[in-house]
User: Which sequence fits this backbone?
């Protein structure tokens, strides 16, 4: 997570008490269990680590590192590398054959460097440790499956919420036109047309329209996994799972967008609008439908809208019921990065346990009402009251120099993101009242929803690594032409054939070779 250098009020959940698992010697089947020597538990252990960071990195010799050393009785030596040069540095370290005890990886490494070096026995297999640490036991199986190399797990994923975007709608415009919140695509189309032709802001001008859309057909406005272009949910006539981009459900979506385009109910110049410009279409009061999600919304956008229209209010659409009866969004991959423990470190059982205890402390959720100095774990992670933070109106507020001077232990841990039991347990707060209100309602829906763990996540494809972006961009470009009327939707099968000849057939074959389920119903959680 990136932090700004000025004072921050901490509202996101951090960590709860460390799960103190046994420090005993790990035994293999047939070995006799043996309690560790007291001297082994008491000895200071040197632990090396390598991680990437953003902006100005804190000093390695700092109060935060000293606190880690004292709490866990370690000599913690962490090599911090700016994210821009991390990939190159990591390649050199891995190629050297001598790697740190702990190494942080960026998410894309799961498809290349991670399996390559796992097969070279560079990392410790962690399967036997997962049930010993609550935050690891909470990780869903479909996420662990993405880290299996020849059946073994060699990495710990860093939490990222499974939920994605839902259509967010101007509730005040719905109310002004006497409309209900839509529940399916046909109803959403009619709302978009009404926002275009019905003067929803009541200013007597023809200056509003329905759906904000940008380049690369973004957002894609899927109402569930069935319609998600990035999900492998549908099958072809060979019984193979296929990317949603070429499914019949996607074809229907493109026809839907094309109908809206013809009605001027979607952004006319969408193909040339970047993400910031697309946001502006909605938050400047032009379009009445965009997307929202609990994580990562920007208060300033909503503030600007409220300044223009103090009566602005948001609502949203829940996932729709699909033709096959399913209802729920595609899960994200569920992680934003990961860390490994070296096979060399794995030779020292006590070192592995210390590493996992350090990791567990920072991955365990702390409820808001325990984010105070009376909770020793919270106080430790934040660097100590009066030293790295102060309590202001009952809330912890970081000191301005907390990051720059390395006062917080969390600045040096490879994984400092708590793993909640449910995504809806995470706390997301926004100062803008209309934004915060819709986010809290979205969280409730996400907490009750099912998620589709797309099987392609755990089925790497060499073809995709080589030319996946090119293949996807081809489909996006051709489908953009169909929306704008520059290519007929009746060319759909021709487009799919072109995709296949460009390498799509190999991509599909390779992914299906790694998929272990037969029916998409098996991937719902």
Assistant:
């Amino acid at each position: 997570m990136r932090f700004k250098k000025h004072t921050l009020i901490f509202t996101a959940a951090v960590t709860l008490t460390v799960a103190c698992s046994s420090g005993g010697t790990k035994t293999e089947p047939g070995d006799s269990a043996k309690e560790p020597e007291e001297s082994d538990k008491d000895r200071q252990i040197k632990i090396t680590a390598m991680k990437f960071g953003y902006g100005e990195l804190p000093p390695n010799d700092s109060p935060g590192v000293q606190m880690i050393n004292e709490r866990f009785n370690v000599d913690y030596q962490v090599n911090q590398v700016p994210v821009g040069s991390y990939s190159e540095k990591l390649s050199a370290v891995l190629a050297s054959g001598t790697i740190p005890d702990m190494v942080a990886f960026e998410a894309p490494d799961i498809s290349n460097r991670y399996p390559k070096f796992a097969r070279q026995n560079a990392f410790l297999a962690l399967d036997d440790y997962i049930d010993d640490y609550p935050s690891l036991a909470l990780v869903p199986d479909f996420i662990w499956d993405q880290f299996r190399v020849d059946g073994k797990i060699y990495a710990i994923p860093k939490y990222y919420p499974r939920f994605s975007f839902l259509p967010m709608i101007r509730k005040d415009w719905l109310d002004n036109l006497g409309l209900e919140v839509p529940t399916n695509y046909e109803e959403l189309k009619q709302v978009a047309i009404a926002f275009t032709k019905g003067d929803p802001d009541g200013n007597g001008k023809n200056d509003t329209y329905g759906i904000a859309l940008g380049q690369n057909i973004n957002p894609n406005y899927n109402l569930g996994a069935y319609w998600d272009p990035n999900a492998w949910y549908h099958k072809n006539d060979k019984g193979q799972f296929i990317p949603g981009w070429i499914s019949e459900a996607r074809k229907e979506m493109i026809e839907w967008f094309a109908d809206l385009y013809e009605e001027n109910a979607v952004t006319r110049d969408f193909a040339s609008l970047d993400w910031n410009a697309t946001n502006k279409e909605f938050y400047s009061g032009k379009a009445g439908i965009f997307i929202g999600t609990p994580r990562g919304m920007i208060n300033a956008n909503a503030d600007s809208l409220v300044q223009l229209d103090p009566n602005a209010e948001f609502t949203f659409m829940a996932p729709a019921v699909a033709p096959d009866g399913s209802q729920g969004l595609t899960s994200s991959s569920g992680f934003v990065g990961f860390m490994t423990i070296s096979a060399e470190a794995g030779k020292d059982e006590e070192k592995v346990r210390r590493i996992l205890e350090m990791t567990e402390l920072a991955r365990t959720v702390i409820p808001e009402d325990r984010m105070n100095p009376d909770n020793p774990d919270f106080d430790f992670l934040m660097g100590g009251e009066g030293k790295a933070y102060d309590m202001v109106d009952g809330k912890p507020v970081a000191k301005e120099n907390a990051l720059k001077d390395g006062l917080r232990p969390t600045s040096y841990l490879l994984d400092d993101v708590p793993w909640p039991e449910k995504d809806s347990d995470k706390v997301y707060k926004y100062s803008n009242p209309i934004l915060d209100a819709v986010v809290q309602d979205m969280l409730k829906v996400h907490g009750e929803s099912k998620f589709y763990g797309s099987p392609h996540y755990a089925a790497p494809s060499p073809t995709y690594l080589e030319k996946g972006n090119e293949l996807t961009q081809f489909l996006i470009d051709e489908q953009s032409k169909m929306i704008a009327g520059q290519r007929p939707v009746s060319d759909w099968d021709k487009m799919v054939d072109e995709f296949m000849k460009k390498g799509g057939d190999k991509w599909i074959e390779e992914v299906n070779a790694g998929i272990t389920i037969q029916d998409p119903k098996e991937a719902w959680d």
The first strand starts at residue 45 and ends at 53. The mean pLDDT is 92. The radius of gyration is 25 Å.
